[in-house]
Amino acid sequence: MGKPTVGIFGLTGCAGDQLAILNCEDELLDLVSFIDIRDFLMGSSGNDTGCALDVALVEGAVLTNRDAETLRAIRKRSGLLVALGTCAVWGGVAALDRNADRARLLEEIYGETGHGYDSLAARALHELVKVDLRITGCPIEKDQFLAAIAGLLNGDLPVYPDYALCTECRMRENNCLLIERGEVCCGPLTVAGCHARCPELRIACIGCRGPLDDGNPNSMLEMLEKKGIGRRQVEDKLRTFAPIGGGQ
Amino acid sequence: MSTIVIDHLARVEGHGGITVELEGDAVKNVRFDVFEGARLLEGLVRGRRYDEIAPVLSRICAICSSAHCLTSLKATENAFAVEVSPQTEILRELLLRGESIESHALHLFFLAVPDYLDRPSAIAVAAEHPAAVMLGLRLKKLGNLIQETIGGRAIHPVNAVPGGFGKVPGVDQLIAVRGALIEAMPDAEAMLDLIASLPAADFCHSDTCFAALHSPNSDRYYAGDELMVVSNGDRAIVPAASYRSLTNEKAIPHSHAKHSTFRGKPFMVGSLARLTVNPKRLTERSATAPERLKLSIPSDNPMDNNKAQAVELVNDLGLALDMVERLIHDGVKDEGCVPVTPRAGTGVGVTEAPRGLLVHSYTYDEQGCVVSADVITPTAMNAASLEQHLRKTVEQSPDRDQAALKKKLQMIARAYDPCISCSVHLIRK
């Protein structure tokens, strides 16, 4: 069997997940010897934009009609579609207020010219097409990306942590920012996988990996309310990268 | 009328294209089209607390995320009159060096060099010149090591916060960075040799106006609040707080990036602009680099921005090493953040991102929540200048062969190292 054919795509976002792939400096040349990257606009000017792909890696959220068309076309030509990063999995920062009045914002930012822009409220990939694997994170973690590629090469999909970030944080023996310092730390509601990078640096988790499936936001809201932190502030923070409570 | 259309630029960050309209031999219209979706992040952060702003707005762009994060912090600290410690200033400067090293290595080896060798990608280059690509990867990795050590992560740093850092790096970590920098010095030389060996890219000449953060005594990406514009030997100073006189932008239908002009003239920002504005920028270690690359300043060839990046890459390695040695010598103190007390007012932060000047400006209410936010990115500032150089490229090409012209146009666009996700984020009226 030949090498699996792969496409790497970016919808609207910061290109951070494609950059995270390019940041696998030690693995990159090996990686391209195992897979056949046929379509990767950010990395190559010689792409086959129509061929069938075994795997499509897609980062970014859907913010324009053009994004939606691109995504549907990718789905059609791909065996497996992988959502790469928090924007693709959850909508990400562009979805932090999906009820915002976009027409008004466009006019404020671009003046009358803004009226003609192709601009939709941010959506995650699964809201438009079937997604076969989700690699969350803002950006994705290198080890989880490489595990996915290794898994795909061996015909299975990787299993990622489904527990709260607090588990990793406790394993690193950090002091709890939420209980001991009364900070709005999103750890209890955020899915693990980053080895508690921020609390390790004494910085409260901002939930950039997206929510846990079975988190309990109400108990966190109540607990922080008792410490004098308003519901609104906590809800805002929890909503920065994904809708509160997940729901996929 | 005929047109030349590049509908989706490859090997750049983000989504953009180029359209040239010709009438006979005359160039009628040139457009750098930006169709990246508008995320409206500056609008969406309104009402958010000051400590949530940098993490959201760093997400404007991954390749410049450290610069966005630090420019954001600078604007917020400026609004609240917070003075950070000298140690914080050095660590932030070092973080931006790390980002610049990573970004320049990525741009040169993965985005720009394949054109000079007539290959579609760095992967294709690696098939014949594996050592060259591995050299680029090592330099890129070194930039990321610095960003991880200071910022806590290579993309979207987490450790830099209002008032300082969550946790300062330990001496053992800095010693590891020092070792990596010393080891990289021969790579820097090899990189210069490689760039010097590339075929000349000489097909566009134009009087160009340049703008950069002005550093009279030293070479900085982070510190400093004065901008300088250089045009035909004239120099004009613009204080950071008056940035709008430089970025007097206007929205245009074909692009989600507004266009900037200074006194009616487009201007270029980035490596070539920095070397032009700050002639004393280079240290002894890198002083001969321009000559080795046949780069003379000021330059009227926008392709020289690639050479300027190579010069900066060598210079940045040296300066990063000096900073790390100073930190190791003086010892890093776990000093904690300086207190941040919100107040109503406006603050401006200006830094040099890898691809040029970056401005963040916020107005806060007395609780420290955002009332309005402006972000002006280097790619947005460069858009008008890029269109001017695309036009010159067509006008100065005697041969109107489409394939050859398309290649030249793409090389000019790439030389600007555009970051199109960035360019979409612009000022409010």
How would you characterize the overall build of this protein?
The complex is a heterodimer of chains A (248) and B (429). Chain A contains 10 helices and 5 strands, in the order βααββαβααβααααα. With 248 residues, chain A is of the alpha/beta class. Chain A has a 5-stranded parallel β-sheet with strand order 2-1-3-4-5, sandwiched between helices. The mean pLDDT of chain A is 92. With 429 residues, chain B is α+β, with helices and mostly antiparallel strands. In chain B, strands 1-2-3 form a 3-stranded antiparallel β-sheet, covered by helices on one side. At the A-B interface, α1, α2, α5, α8 and α10 of A face α1, α4, α5 and α6 of B.
List the helices and strands and how they pair.
The complex is a heterodimer of chains A (248) and B (429).
Chain A: E1 5-10, H1 16-22, H2 28-34, E2 36-40, E3 53-59, H3 65-77, E4 78-84, H4 86-90, H5 102-110, E5 133-135, H6 142-153, H7 165-171, H8 197-200, H9 217-226, H10 231-238
Parallel strand pairs in A: 1-2, 1-3, 3-4, 4-5
Chain B: E1 2-6, E2 16-23, E3 26-34, H1 41-44, H2 53-57, H3 65-79, H4 86-116, H5 122-128, H6 130-151, E4 160-161, E5 164-165, H7 171-196, E6 210-213, E7 226-231, E8 234-239, E9 250-252, E10 255-259, H8 271-277, H9 289-292, H10 304-330, E11 345-353, E12 356-364, E13 370-376, H11 378-395, H12 402-415, H13 420-423
Antiparallel strand pairs in B: 1-2, 2-3, 4-5, 6-7, 7-8, 9-10, 11-12, 12-13
